[in-house]
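Shape matters. Shown next:

___
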Amino acid sequence: MSTDGPIRFSLEEMATIIEDLMRIADELNRSGDEVNGYLLDLVTNRLLDRSFGGDAGPDLR
C-alpha cells in the first residue's frame, strides 16, 4: 500500500468531521478554553473552505 498519494474523503465524510470539530470548538469555548476553541475554529473553517469551495483566507502555514 502506497502512502505517497493524497488522502481522500467523500464530502459526506468531510461534513461529519467538520460537524464534530465544530461541536468540540463550541464545548471548548463554553468551558472557558477560548484559545483552543478559537484555534479549532480556524482549522474547521479552513477545512470547510477546502472541502466546499470558497476563499480559504490567510495561509496558516
About this structure: DSSP finds two helices and no strands in the chain. The CA atoms of residues 49 and 56 lie 5 Å apart. The mean pLDDT is 85.
